[in-house]
Amino acid sequence: MVCGKNCFTMWMNRKTDRIFLKTLNYVLNVLKFSPSTNVRTQSTRKPGPPRLSWRLLFFGTDQFAVESLKLLNLCRNSNEGIVEKLEVVTLPGDLPVKRFAQQNQLALHNWPPHIVEGQFDVGVVVSFGRLLHRGLIDKFPFGILNVHPSLLPRWRGPAPVFHTVMHGDTVTGVTVIQILPNKFDVGPILNQEIHQVPKNCTAEDLGAALATKGAHLLLNTLMKLPEKIANKREQELKGVTFAPKINTSMSWINWEEQTCDQIACLCRAIGSRIPLRTVWMGKTIKLLDFVGKCYTSDERNPGSVYYDKDSNTLAVCCKDGWVAFRTVLLNKRLTAADFYNGYLNQTVKKNTSSKPAEGQFVSKKGRTEELQTNTWRGQKKQ
Q1: Are 229 and 42 in contact (CB under 8 A)?
Q2: Of 270 and 11, more confident
Q3: What predicted TM-score, i.e. pTM, was given to this entire model?
Q4: Predicted confidence band at 346 (pLDDT cuts at 50, 70, 90)?
Q5: Three-state SS letters, the chain
Q6: Each residue's pLDDT tens digit, 315-337
Q7: 306 - beta bridge partners?
Q8: Domains by residue range for the chain, with CATH
C-alpha cells in the first residue's frame, strides 16, 4: 500500500515536471523573439494557459485560402510543434478549401460551426466572406486572425487584389489582423509585410504571390502570437479605401475619361473574368485579346477606331492615345480583320457628317455615375 502511494507520488511529480518544462520552453521561445521581457496581453478575454503548439480552426473558401491551409497542414504533420490540431469550416459547394480538407483528412464543419469552448486556441480566417459574431469569437482564447491581401487600411473589402491592379498601385502587401465582431477588415494589426507589384502584373499573378506571402506571414504570427497580440496597433483612420466585388459595370470603357494606362490596368485586373465592353452602333461589343498601347500620329475623337493591317489589330482612341485589341465579340467571335471587313469598313463607307458616331466605339452613358454610387455604398457599409 505504501509502495503504491509512493509510486503514485513519483508519477505525479514527473507529470508536474513535464508541464513545467513545456510552459518554460514556451516562455523561452516567446522571449527569444521579443524585444522586451515585459510581455503583456491586451486582449479583453483571458487567454488560456500558454501552448507550444496551437489548436486551430480554419475558415476559408477559395484558392487564396488554400495556400494558408496547406502551410498549416504541413506544420501539423511536421515536428516543429506549431500546429497541434487543425480543423476546417467552409461554405456549401465544391470549393477549393473543402476539396483540400477532404484530400488531407481534415475534419470539416458546416457554417455556422457549433463548437464547444475549450476545443480550440485560435481561429484563422482567410477569404471567407462571412461576418463572425462575438459569441463565436469568444470561444477562442487568443481570438480569430484574418489574413488580408492588402496593406490595411487600404483596400478593405472582398476584392483587394483586383482593385490594387485596377488602380495601378505599385506597392501592396499582406496584413494579419484580429477579427472584430460583425465587422470586416477593421481589426487591430498584428503583422504586416510589403510587396512590390511587378510591372504589367495581372490580378491572378498578384493574388498567387500574395497567397504565398500571406501564408508565411500567418505562420510567423502564430510563432510569436502572444508578443504580436501584446504589440498590436489599431488601423489608421486616414487612407481608408474600399474594394467592392468586381462586376460587369466596371468593365465598360469610357473613352473620353480613361487613359491608355488606366485601360491597361483595368484589363489586367478583370479582363480574364469579365471582358472589357463598349457600344458599337447601339450594341454591346466585347473587346478581347488586349495588346496594349499603340503609337500613331493620328489625332481623332475618343472612341474612333481603325484597323491596323500591319499588326492585325483594332486601334481605338482614348483620352491620351490609342490602345489595340486583336479580337472582338459581337454576336460571335471576330478577329480584327473580320470585324473590319464585315462591319467597320461598311460603316465607314456609309458614314456622313450628319452621323459622327458611326465608325466609333461609344462610351456607355451613366457608367461613371454607377461606379461612383457602388463605391459610395461600399464605403457606407464600413
Answers
A1: yes
A2: 270
A3: 0.81
A4: confident
A5: CHHHHHHHHHHHHHHHHHHHHHHHHHHHHHHHHCCCCCCCCCCCCCCCCCCCCEEEEEEECCHHHHHHHHHHHHHHCCCCCCEEEEEEECCCCCCHHHHHHHHCCCCEECCCCCCCCCCCCEEEEECCCCCCCHHHHCCCCCCEEEEECCCCCCCECCCHHHHHHHCCCCEEEEEEEECCCCCCCCCCEEEEEEEECCCCCCHHHHHHHHHHHHHHHHHHHHHCHHHHHHCCECCCCCCCCECCCCCHHHHECCCCCCCHHHHHHHHHHHCCCCCEEEEECCEEEEEEEEEEEECCCCCCCCCEEEEECCCCEEEEECCCCEEEEEEEEECEEEEHHHHHHHHHHHHHHHCCCCCCCCCECECCCCHHHHHHHHHHHHHHHC
A6: 999 999 999 999 999 989 999 99
A7: 315
A8: 51-231 (3.40.50.170), 248-362 (3.10.25.10)
Name the residue type at position 202: T
Q: What is the pLDDT of residues 215-234, one digit of tens each?
A: 999 999 999 999 999 999 99
Q: Going by C-beta distance under 8 Å and a sequence separation of 6 or more, which residues neighbour residue 142?
A: 43, 47, 54, 121, 122, 225, 226, 229
**Is the distance from CB of 191 to CB of 175 less than 8 angstroms?**
yes
Q: Which three cell numbers stand for residue 295?
A: 503609337
Q: How many CB atoms lie within 10 A of CB 216?
A: 14
